[in-house]
């Protein structure tokens, strides 16, 4: 088991998050989203990337944090999410990328489950950097239901 985890730090709806860079394929500017008819509420649309159609999720809605405000600074993190032998590529809307840091996994604190105001089942925990706490998202947990439908 590794002890150090490279982590992409980002902001979403005024909250601070991190996600394991192992899941991050790239970060792109939000250009244009195609509508996806009859898709779940949290699907913001889809985009074309190198000939592939990638679904784009409003991460704020997905984790019950509220809809993401889309403006010229909005970014999309393209994630590769693994589940057993399969993986899916999916984009998530975020406000901005803050940094890439290496965190010490032994210092990740368990999330305060009942006081967060959103679905904390998607978190690996909390991590403090200077005065700020970052919620460390687990990409597999965020997309558990979607991954289960692939199997």
TrEMBL record:
Domain CheW-like: 4-148
GO CC annotation terms, alphabetical: cytosol
BP GO terms, sorted: chemotaxis; signal transduction
Pfam families linked to this entry: CheW
Domain of life: Bacteria
Gene3D superfamilies assigned to the protein according to its UniProt record, in alphabetical order: CheA-289, Domain 4 (2.40.50.180), SH3 Domains (2.30.30.40)
Classification via SMART domains: CheW (SM00260)
Entries under PANTHER family matching the protein: CHEMOTAXIS PROTEIN CHEW, CHEMOTAXIS SENSOR HISTIDINE KINASE-RELATED
Annotated protein name in UniProt: CheW-like domain-containing protein
Organism the protein comes from: Pseudochryseolinea flava
Taxon lineage: Bacteria, Pseudomonadati, Bacteroidota, Cytophagia, Cytophagales
């Amino acid at each position: 088991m590794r002890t150090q985890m490279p982590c992409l730090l980002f902001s979403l709806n005024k909250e601070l998050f991190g996600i394991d860079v192992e899941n991050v394929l790239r970060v792109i500017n939000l250009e244009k989203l195609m509508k996806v008819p009859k898709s779940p509420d949290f699907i913001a649309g889809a985009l074309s990337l190198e000939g592939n159609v990638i679904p784009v999720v409003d991460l704020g809605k997905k984790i019950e944090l509220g809809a993401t405000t889309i403006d010229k600074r909005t970014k999309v993190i393209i994630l590769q999410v693994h589940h057993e032998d399969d993986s899916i590529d999916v984009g998530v809307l975020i406000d901005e990328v803050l940094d890439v840091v290496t965190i010490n996994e032994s210092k990740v604190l368990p999330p305060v489950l009942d006081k967060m105001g959103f679905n904390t089942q998607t978190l690996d925990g909390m991590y403090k950097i200077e005065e700020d706490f970052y919620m460390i998202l687990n990409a597999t947990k965020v997309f558990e239901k979607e991954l289960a439908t692939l199997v």
